[in-house]
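Sync notes, pocket subgroup
Present: LS, DG
LS reminded everyone that the earlier model was apo-only. Rerun requested with coenzyme A included. Inputs:
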Amino acid sequence: MILTKKDKLSPEEITESVAAIENECFSVPWTKRSIKSQILTEGSVFLLVRADDGKAAGYICGQCVADECELYRIAVLPDYRRLGAADMLMSEFIAQCEKNGINSIFLEVRRDNEPAKRLYEKHGFTAVGLRKNYYTAPICDAIIYLRRVAADSSAF
Ligand SMILES: CC(C)(COP(=O)(O)OP(=O)(O)OC[C@H]1O[C@@H](n2cnc3c(N)ncnc32)[C@H](O)[C@@H]1OP(=O)(O)O)[C@@H](O)C(=O)NCCC(=O)NCCS
């Protein structure tokens, strides 16, 4: 598996790869238009992971504002799961936050999404809140997770 950062790819290339992953992984996938607009937003973070066969197998996306970052999505295509792709994406995402002076990473996750909750807890996130009936299709509560980030002093 190989990781690629946003600045190494064209917005079109990221959009196509992310849209294909979104369509396979989510009941309400992001449109190409919303993906492209997010790529072009200042402070957005996109990392793609490619499988050894060259296929874009997974991605992670977040938005940094000042010293906070919100992790919006992490997804890996079904055929490439349980191979450590999400671990790679998450570790690099957190490392980038550390380098960029981020103090806190927030995210929301469906209460019934056990694989994702395990992944977040493995990477140091803790549950700090609940939003009742936050998700639709199907309706489900959201758990809010937070990870504190120790700023990397070598970056300054
Ligand atoms: C959640 C998801 C991204 C994990 O991707 P993955 O590449 O299979 O995960 P990894 O192989 O890197 O596993 C990393 C950790 O995640 C957790 N995990 C992943 N899949 C799991 C499963 N099916 N059951 C329990 N824990 C799981 C484990 O803690 C695992 O660490 P371990 O192997 O040491 O136990 C993937 O299942 C997915 O794309 N799901 C659909 C999209 C989604 O729900 N995204 C999250 C909300 S945006």
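DG: Residues 25, 73-76, 81-87, 109, 113-116, 118-119, 122 surround coenzyme A (CB under 6 Å).
LS: The two ends are 31 Å apart (CA to CA).
Action: DG to write up.
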